[in-house]
Write a structure and sequence with these properties.
The chain has about 240 residues and is of the alpha/beta class. The chain contains 7 helices and 12 strands. A 7-stranded mixed sheet has the order 6-7-10-9-8-11-12, with helices on both faces. Strands 3-2-1-4-5 form a 5-stranded mixed sheet, with helices on one face. α4 (about 145-155) crosses α5. The radius of gyration is 19 Å and the shape is globular.
Length: about 240
């Protein structure tokens, strides 16, 4: 069994991978309770053959993972970084290692599903839209706050907004909670649609769009554009690395 970990800004997802199985789970990331959560979920597991980690979390969180896996399994985790080239994909970032490994892994997995030109839209704490051109080169991307951060910023940065409704009901809205909920969601959707249009104009109208992340299905339902929903692209990218 291999253990694949995708550690984001607010959630940690994992998959226990074997030739017969792909079994996953997830927890919220809280540094104070992380060891307790690992004990609760992982203590009964056998030692994995390989432990491969994609992490955009803090060094403190990563160190807790290293110490726990050394203590319980006597195994050294492999923390992934973004290389200049891998699996036929060229990393066009000015400093390839600076590219978030979660974004790189998602693109590697996306290329196994769709043919370039393609765009990977990741909808989590942050939203990223990353482009691979027809020559299999990563050409860059855009990053902006995700839905939770938009709503959190609106609540903390204003005095008159109390609660925010999570679903779009009336447009235009007739109360503040609905206005804030619908405005943040549809504003985010509008930004993504605009960037999709720009990418198509620059890289070709045959561009394939693939959407992933915790808010992927919600965003896709409002995009009114063709999108392939792949909620576990980063974990699937880790699975590719295990096969190297």
């Amino acid at each position: 069994m291999n253990l694949l970990l995708d550690i984001g800004n607010s959630r940690m997802k994992w998959v226990q991978q074997s030739p017969e199985d792909w079994h996953g789970g997830a927890i919220d990331i809280n540094q104070a309770s992380l060891v307790t959560e690992l004990d609760r979920h992982w203590s009964s597991w056998k030692r994995p053959e390989k432990l491969v980690i994609s992490s955009v979390a803090s060094d403190d969180i990563n160190q807790i993972l290293r110490q726990w896996t050394r203590l319980h399994w006597a195994i050294e985790a492999r923390f992934v970084t973004s290389p200049p080239e891998q699996f036929g994909l060229v990393n066009g970032y000015e400093d390839p290692a600076q590219l978030g490994c979660d974004r790189w892994l998602a693109m590697l997995a996306a290329m196994q599903i769709g043919a370039p030109p393609l765009c990977v839209i990741a909808c989590g704490t942050a939203v990223t839209l990353d482009v691979i051109n027809k020559d299999r080169e990563f050409c860059g991307g855009l990053i902006f706050p995700g839905l939770h951060l938009l709503r959190q910023g609106l609540m903390t940065g204003t005095a008159g907004i109390g609660t925010i409704e999570t679903e779009v009901s009336e447009v235009p809205a007739l109360n503040t909670a609905q206005g804030a909920g619908g405005g943040t969601l549809l504003g985010l959707v509008g930004a993504i649609r605009f960037i999709m249009d720009v990418y198509e104009q620059k890289f070709g109208s045959n561009m394939v769009f693939m959407i992933t992340g915790g808010d992927a299905e919600l965003i896709r339902s409002h995009l009114q554009r063709d999108c392939i929903v792949e909620p576990e692209l980063t974990l699937k990218g880790l699975a590719l690395l295990v096969q190297e």
